[in-house]
Structure formats: structure tokens, C-alpha cells
Fold this protein.
Amino acid sequence: MTDLLVDKTILITGASAGIGEHSARLFAREGARLLLTARRLPELERVADTIREDGGDVIVVQADTTVPDDLQRAIDAAVSRWGGIDGALNNAGRSQGGGRLAEVQDDVFDAVVDVNFKGVWAAMRAELRAMTAPGANGGSIVNVSSIGGTFGAPEQSVYGATKAAVIAMSRAAAAEYGREGVRVNAIAPGATMTDMMTGWEQRVPGIIEHLGSLAALGRVGQPTEIAEAAAWLLSDRSSYVSGMTLGVDGGTAPWPH
């Protein structure tokens, strides 16, 4: 590894699986101190234990991003142990599960908005307060959006809308907090091999092959590839990058290549 994140304290939401888990492992190898949060504590502890076995410095806080007090409690733990946070990867999210716009039920709409949009907003609010507190040195926030937030995908109207909102909110926060030393960016992953993708393949056989055909590289992405992009944005090597959305999608287009 390259010590890309050495001496940095990084918060990761949704760290118990998928992109969050792979980011935690990668960031630890790059020298970061980690504050890991997720709703599923046993899975979160499993991730943390593997990092500790490799000598990583990590604390775990069970937290639901839709509960603001949970997020503040997590950041308070980092402040108590390390004095603050230097970066955050707001990764927690949920899928829509399909359905055309008029078929989406109110409870599904509310659940997707609560996690994917309001949850990111609540996390950013707590993170920004910590990064701009007296004595703090700013920091870097990376919000996980999606390629679905950059163009309309069938049966993903609510999901796509929340991910587009994350992009807009990231740009606004970058403009608001840049003078206080805080950079805010979004990443927009394409189809990525996570448990969510595996479940989709079980419901719709062949979907992974189809989504791979939409990418110029001819395949879906791996979670570690998304984590690598996030690590760069959280590092000092991207010190003049803010308010941007980085596509990590293998050159995906709405039509097959």
C-alpha cells in the first residue's frame, strides 16, 4: 500500500458489507484510523475484527443514519478517542426494489428517501459540525451517489432521484464550507458486485451480464474499485478537488456498447 490515508481518522457509514466493508479494509491498509458505523452490529464487528487482526486502529458504533442522535454519538466517540475526524465516506443506502413510478408505494418512497437522501444529509450535518468546530482542521467528505443519479433508469425513479439529490447537496456543501477547509465530493458507482447485486441477479437472471454490457469495459465493477476512488478523494492527493462527482462506472452508457 501507499500510506494514502496515514494519520487520518475516517468515518464510514454502512460499513458492514459491500462498498462500505471493502472501503474499510482498504482505508485501514492505507493507514487510516477508522470509525465504522452500520445498523447490523454483528456484521460490523466482523469487519472490525479482521482489520484489528491486521494491526488496524478501529472503533465500532452501531448507528442508523436515519437517527441523528446515532450519528452524533458515533462522531463523539471519534472525538473522544482521536480528537476529531478528518474524513467521511457516507455510504449507507438502500435500493428501491423495482416498480414503475406509479406503482411505488408510500412506505417504499419514504424508506428510500430517509436512508439515501435524509440519512446522507444528517450524516453530513454532524460531520461538518465536527470539521468546522474550533480547533478543527477541516476535512474531506465523500458521498456515495450512483450512476442512477445521473441518468434515468427504468423502475428506479425514486432511487435515482435520491442519488441525484446527493450530487446536488454535495455541490452545495462544497460551496458553503470550502473556505473552512472542507472538501465535499460525490462518487457515482456503476453496477457493482455487492450482495445487493447478487440478490438482483437471483430475481432477474442475466442482469449482471446485461449491466456489464452497458459499460465500455464490458463488465460490472468490484467494490474495491469503488473504494480506491473514494480513498483518493479522501486523501491529500486530491487537495484541489471539491464539488465534483466522480463516475466510477467503467464508462457506462444507457445503451450497450
Notes: The mean pLDDT is 95. Helices lie at 18-29, 41-53, 68-82, 106-131, 157-177, 195-203, 207-213, 223-234.
